[in-house]
Amino acid sequence: MLMERCIETQKGLYLCFIDYSKAFDKVRHEELFHILNSLGIDGKDLRILKTLHWKQTATVRVGGEHNEETPIAREVRQGCILSPDLFNLYSEMILRELDNIQGIGLGGHNINNIRYGDDTVLIAQSEQSLIKMLDIVVKESEIKGLSLNIAKTESMAISKKPQAPSCKIRSNGTQVKQANQFKYLGYLLTSDGKCETEIRKRIITSKTTFKKLSPLMTNRNIHMYTKKKAF
């Protein structure tokens, strides 16, 4: 929707896909619970979360012997359904510093970032605004104990023009790669703002899946209830 709006109104759209280095592993427990408390998380829920994360220890076994227990003062659990939401709240304090920077107007709201867990996209109408956003995010992330993996962080300029505009942004002296396409949360974004590539990919995936299920669906010896369960 953002891409369509910008292309229709002939406005610039500049994106930066942020990659945090070991994001979930670097969440500080004490800082996390301070943030949750400041956001008004219910006391009972907060105690449950503390029970899951607070005062854990780990040991390493070498040659059949364990070393001394080491306290775990950071990380949210990998694979836990709560972890993406907890990281969202943790990074909320970082991205609030962008509130006064103009992103894309949509429905009366200023949209300058989209995120789920550690998958974060910065959104701007100009290259200069995107550079400013990235500088703020890098600085505030370091304060919270997080660091960006610049080698995997990519930028993109979206335009109807045959040649995409330049998007030369740097972080701590390192050039951020400009991409012509990027897969975000399973959706393929392209610098021309079109969705044909993604549609073709989904059609091919659907055909492949249906072909695999065809022997099951056409087998008369298998009950219809079982066939429905396959979906």
UniProtKB/TrEMBL annotation:
Domain of life: Eukaryota
Ranges where the Reverse transcriptase domain occurs: 1-189
Pfam families xref list: RVT_1
InterPro entries in the cross-refs: DNA/RNA_pol_sf (IPR043502), RT_dom (IPR000477)
Protein name stated in the entry: Retrovirus-related Pol polyprotein LINE-1
Organism: Elysia marginata
Lineage: Eukaryota, Metazoa, Spiralia, Lophotrochozoa, Mollusca
